[in-house]
Amino acid sequence: MTTTTAPAPAVDDTATAVPRPAVWRALLRNRLALAALAFLAVIIVCAVCAPLIAPADPNAQNLLGRLQPPAWQSGGSAAHLLGTDQLGRDLLSRIIYGTRVSLLVGAGAALLAGTIGTTVGLASGYFGGWTDRVAMRVADVQLAFPAILLALAVVGFVGSGLWYVILVLGITGWVSYARVVRSEVLSLRSRDFVTEAHAIGVGHLTIMRRHLLPNVLAPLATIGTLHIAAAVVAEASLSYLGLGVPKETVTWGGMLADGQLYLGTSWWIAVFPGVALMLTSLAINITGDALRDVADPKAYRR
Predict the structure, then answer these.
(1) Does the structure show a pLDDT above 60 at 107?
(2) Per-residue confidence at 11, pLDDT binned at 50, 70, 90?
(3) How far is CA 11 from CA 16, 190, 213, in A?
(4) Fewer CB within a 10 Å sphere, N or C end of the chain?
(5) Cα(246)–Cα(164) distance, rounded to whole angstroms?
(6) pLDDT tens digit sequence for 121-145
(7) 84 by DSSP, 3-state: which?
(8) Predicted model pTM
(9) Distance spanning both ends of the chain, measured CA to CA
(10) Whole-number pLDDT of residue 13
(11) 99 neighbors 43 (Cβ within 8 angstroms)
């Protein structure tokens, strides 16, 4: 006599899953996130279309029109809405062109650091043992040095340049990615879906790529946006000290350095680039929080 086993009932996870429309509706109710996204959209358009948007050549000098105040102040001109600097260069045009360097450095450094940190974190958390110990000790050694000082030392040694700055900020920023990914993988590697993948002979690289990596994307989105903001500020700091990109390239940090001697008389030279830097960093951080919520629907489970 043979017996048959009834198939196990399918698990209904609709009670725990949150429909994507509900996620996006919750995001649309976040007015602060929408404002940040709108501001970032404007910044990205300025960076991509700078030659079309900027009212003047950012490096064109006019000593007869130097230190003109913003258009709304006495002595200002509609031709220079935010005024001119000590060499008569249009400040609005320089701020618009400065977005290019800031966003390129921020995105490039975050991409490089994220690639390195995610790879190290996946290997460290998945394999454990000596791989984990070596990776985490290297991370501890790097954390012993302040990131900005390490960047200053490396840039001072290899020289200044846009790609050098991206490389340095990327290499010095991988630790936070690695630690978060390692922590997530340590909690995931003992789950049933990983154990079952091992049992049917799935390779290590496939498990890490197809089963573990998708489960760490939510924290990676938050860390990535935070690192973009940090890289933008770090690039401005290096340029302010004269160790970032070449002097002839327009950067917000370089504009801050140019305006520091004129704060008492021509405040706009330093204030407007500083405001642009602050608002951009703030908008990126707020956007990172919103992306985390979209990537992790559990945030909307009320």
Answers:
(1) yes
(2) very low
(3) 11, 21, 24
(4) N
(5) 11
(6) 999 988 888 988 999 999 888 888 7
(7) strand
(8) 0.80
(9) 52
(10) 37
(11) yes
Query: Given the structure tokens 């490039």, which residue do they identify?
Result: 108
User: Is 135 in contact with 124 (CB distance < 8 Å)?
Assistant: yes
Q: Say which amino acid occupies 110.
A: A
Q: How confident is the model at residue 264 (pLDDT cuts 50, 70, 90)?
A: confident
Cα maximum dimension of the chain: 105
Q: Quote the pLDDT of residue 26.
A: 63
E strand or H helix at 222, and its extent?
Answer: helix 217-240
**Residue 165 contacts by C-beta under 8 Å, 6 or more apart in sequence?**
105, 109, 155, 235, 238, 244, 245
**Burial, 140: exposed, middle or buried (Cβ in 10 Å; 0-12, 13-18, 19+)?**
exposed
Element (H, E) at 196: helix 192-199
Average pLDDT over residues 269-280: 93
- Three-state DSSP at 86 gives coil
Q: Which residues pair with 174 in a beta bridge?
A: none
